[in-house]
Amino acid sequence: MNESMNIGQAAQATGVSAKMIRHYESVGLFPEARRTESGYRLYGEKELATLRFIRHSRDLGFSLEQIRALLDLWQNRRRPSRQVKALAQEHLDEIDKKLRELQAMKSTLSHLVHCCAGDDRPDCPIIDSLADAPHARQ
């Protein structure tokens, strides 16, 4: 591997698009890269490792703020692992809540689809339910 890579090479090596690398730099999640005299970004192994860490964290659904905290913990070799576990447990609890919400939506929609004849008549329990939803009333 070369000592340094440009943004396109870094994107290919890490699976993080060049656009997202620039975004992570702009929001302060990822430090701005060193630049050549002509202004091209340069990335070394440390930056590539950080981008991979960010990508893996995003793949698990962590928010940018959670990733910021995880990066701080990752870079602090003296951190207690309980802090990492607590952050991950909080995220896991959020995922469980979303799964319950999705399961409830699926159940309701499945029931409505089952109740709809899906024929040429205009009567439709799906439309009736959507029109009668409490949040739709004014």
UniProtKB/TrEMBL annotation:
Keyword line: Cytoplasm, DNA-binding, Transcription, Transcription regulation
InterPro entries on file: CueR, DNA-bd_dom_put_sf, MerR-type_HTH_dom, MerR_fam, Tscrpt_reg_MerR_DNA-bd
SMART domains: HTH_MERR
Protein name: Cu(I)-responsive transcriptional regulator
Keyword Cell membrane tagged: no
Superkingdom of source: Bacteria
UniProt-annotated location(s): Cytoplasm
UniProt entry tagged with the keyword Transcription regulation: yes
NCBIfam families in the cross-refs: CueR
Positions of the HTH merR-type domain: 4-73
